[in-house]
Amino acid sequence: MKKIFVLLFFLITLNALELPKNFSADFTQTITTQNKNLIYKGKIFYKNGKILWKYTYPVTKYIWINNKVYIYEPNLYQVTISPKPKFTLENIIKHAKKLKDHLYLAIINNTKIYFKYNKTIKFLKYKNKMGDLVEIKFFNQKFTPINSKIFIPSYPKDVDIIYQR
Predict the structure, then answer these.
(1) How confident is the model at residue 49 (pLDDT cuts 50, 70, 90)?
(2) How many helices and strands, by DSSP H and E, does the chain display?
(3) Is omega for the bond preceding 58 within 30 degrees of 0, making it cis?
(4) Which CATH number goes with the domain that contains 133?
(5) Mean pLDDT of the chain
(6) Beta strands in 101-143 (DSSP E)
(7) Range of the domain at 90
(8) How far is CA 20 from each of CA 5, 14, 46, 117, 159, rounded to the nearest angstrom?
């Protein structure tokens, strides 16, 4: 009986998806709305559940996700602070069901997220609450150590702060 349990545990662990401890990549985010594509570009940094999305095109924006979400928009001179969402990379991986080859599906808050995973997430595709198609592609991926300080929200003290529930 013990051998069967160990074998079952090994098989479950073998098929389990996980994010690398350290991960950074360039990304493009395409939002398709009413047959128009809105394209955003930037860099993502991930370390032990903490994330920094650094948007560089068409505007600069920083999104830190740790115990809360901090969105700093320098052009608007404001920071929005909200609770951590359930829609995280960890939850996407945790709720994944394999469809074929390296293609997976996760359903979080009634949102279907399709993604390609081969040692890490290669792209995500889903429809947002407004029905727009969102696709995020990751490239130039690196798995080298990341300084933890970049996950601490950093913005000027005199910006407008908006709290959301």
Answers:
(1) confident
(2) 2, 12
(3) yes
(4) 2.50.20.10
(5) 87
(6) 103-108, 111-117, 121-127, 133-142
(7) 19-163
(8) 27, 15, 8, 12, 34
